[in-house]
Amino acid sequence: MTTAAASGTPAAPVTPDFADRTDFENADRGFVAGPSSTTITTDDGRMVWDFAGTAFLEGDCPDTVNPSLWRQSQLCARAGLYRVTDGIYQVRGFDMSNMTLVEGDIGVIVVDPLASAETAAAGLALYREQRGDRPVTGVLFTHSHLDHFGGIHGVIGGGERVDGVPILAPQGFMEHSGTENLYAGTAVLRRGAYCSGRNLDRGPTGLVGTGLGFTTSTGTPGLLPATIEITRTGQVETVDGVVFHFQLTPGTEAPSEMNFHLPEHRALCMAENATHTLHNILSLRGAVVRDARTWSRCLDEAVQLFGSESDVLFASHHWPTWGTERLTAFLSAQCDLYAYLHDQTLRLANQGRTAAEIAEVIELPPGLARSWHARGYYGSVSHNVKAIYQRYLGWYDGHPSSLWEHPPTESARRYVDCMGGVDAVVARAGEYVSDGDLRFAAQLLKHAVFAQPDHTGAKELLARTFELLAHGAENAIWRNCYLMGALELRQGVTGAAPSTGGMPDTLSVEQIFDALAIRINGPEAWDHRATLDWHFTDLDEQFRTSLRNGVLVPTRMDPADAAVGFEGAPGFEDTPADVTFTLTRPQLLDLLAGKGLDTIEHTGDIGALRTLVSVLDTTDPDFPVVTP
Predict the structure, then answer these.
(1) Which of 263, 269, 274 is nearest to 308 (CA)?
(2) CA-CA distance, 25 to 294, in Å (whole number)?
(3) Which residues pair with 122 in a beta bridge?
(4) What's residue 495's pLDDT?
């Protein structure tokens, strides 16, 4: 039988039942108390979270928002302390993510302490107002994304006790939490500003959410190293009398992630592997492509390991699912969701379809399409299919004309010339807008803007086209990207992007040198040579960084050669260093920030350091996106 999707003919859309209020009942179930103030601020009074900013969602859906997305945003806007089951509570609506609190024999174990110290501290304070002033006796990070560990100093550290508090995290957490957004950090932050809608006004014509939560807080992020690493599925740890059974799930929603089961509570935490939306196989902000096949199989494994032993399922976003039968059905459907996209993408790729062609024709089976939790509020079928294609086949679509295309501005000038000039393109695009073909209008107008960036009519019509596309988008991230594009076209790049804050103080020395290598301006460094040795007294480690051929090559000394040093080690004995530094890792961070040189012990020619610094590139955190 030939389906509509296989033939390329779109079928009538299958949608869930808006009369089904189960999600609303579950989102409200267990409510204990709301926030005690309308805002959360830093010590100096800067607002990092505004609870009143979501009040507009209490009304009926306007014509500027997709009704399905409006429903999801209403669910995500609920804020307060919620009881999941005896001894397990969640703080929701204080940040993009949830903070879970598991009560132990003496105190409370904090799971995923939000993105900022300020929001985490406020959430913990609300919990203590309702449940007593329990000490934090453990912290657990489910995965390596900032919104699940950044608030650590709001629950331990700062005014809270740190010594003796175990911090549990999945294998690879420290590496991936430091580097996932470091190497391409500037680009990820800039694109992430589009995804989050950071500069949009809150309201029916602007930001209505992100599909996972309303948005991310703007407080103070931090990180403390894990003290207990979860290295295998089946590992059991007891924290403050609470037994945790772990399932390791690397390569799913994050490169380092884990689920856990609390057998004494019959409760299952799915981290961010199973939430009430289709998630991303590749985040639009940029990331390593995730493995949809592995993701699906980990969900199936969770059903086998924990499904029949659980009465409630909760996650790092959204609301719980109660009942063994319901949570098992939910997990099984989520498993099928990622498996279907994976398998069908490859099926069609093996028939010669390109990523764009596959994304245009794939439809979810009716049983999934009718499920609210499978809707594309954060990920989408379209961009997930393209990500799966990218994972297996890369950027090249197989057509030789794609091998050596002109870059956007040069292509745009030629297209516009072929079409009779920018005015003609804008006029024709206006006709497509009037006819309702917003997708092609946007394609045409992109060429017009890149060919003649100062053409006011082209920019305004493209901005209006983006707005109309946003108003119909079910996916929150698509909506935010469209509206941020319209904002840039009308106002230029507005507001400074959030600073990366320099290098995180949890990076290893090797990661620090890797990050430096990415900043080397290759052409400027072609003719420079410099060899710097680094002896870290606090780590008992030695590194050599060699600048050559426009590349910074970091080499870690084998501990067996430590006694002879690089100049006596095999392969290095004939290449003495220009300068040798004896220092600590914190002093390296100071040195790279341009301070503390006078306090660092060194021998040799300090000019080698100046040579290295002179070829480090700076980045623009506010580069344009929809304009050349």
Answers:
(1) 263
(2) 32
(3) none
(4) 66
